[in-house]
Amino acid sequence: MKTIRKGKKFPSKPWVGKKVRCSNCDFSGKLEPGDKVRFVSDQRDGDFYQLRCPNCKAFIILAASLRD
Ligand SMILES: [Zn+2]
């Protein structure tokens, strides 16, 4: 496609650097670009990111709005 105007750039991994805490085992950490984080679209409760706790493998949920 020929570019007429360059669109806004969205970070592909806006969750990098976010702190997460596992509610199951109390593990806490800071997200890095290599982490496996899945975007989940949820119309009812709002979009969120989901990852596995590296300690206990439970799901950690991170709100996708990322406004804190
Ligand atoms: Zn955990």
Q: Quick recap of the structure?
A:
The chain is mostly beta strands.
Explained architecture:
- The protein has strands spanning 19-21, 28-30, 38-40, 48-52, 59-63.
- With 68 residues, the protein is an all-beta fold.
- The protein has a domain at 19-63.
- The strands form 2 sheets. Strands 3-4-5 form a 3-stranded antiparallel sheet, with no helix packed on it.
- The chain starts with 18 loop residues before the first strand and ends in a 5-residue tail after the last strand.
- The mean pLDDT is 91.
- The structure holds zinc ion.
- Residues 22, 24-25, 27, 53, 55-56, 58 line the site of zinc ion (ZN).
Mean pLDDT equals 91
Order of helices and strands: EEEEE
End-to-end separation in angstroms reads 37 Å
Taking the sheet with the most strands, its summary is: 3 strands, antiparallel
List the ligand species.
zinc ion
Side-by-side strand order of the widest sheet: 3-4-5
Helix content: under 10%
- Unreliable sequence segments: none
Radius of gyration: 15 Å
Number of helices: 0
SSE class: mainly beta
The assembly state of the depicted protein chains is single chain
Q: In percent terms, what proportion of residues is strand?
A: 25-35%
Give keywords.
5 strands; 68 residues; two-stranded antiparallel sheet; three-stranded antiparallel β-sheet; single chain; binds zinc ion; mainly beta
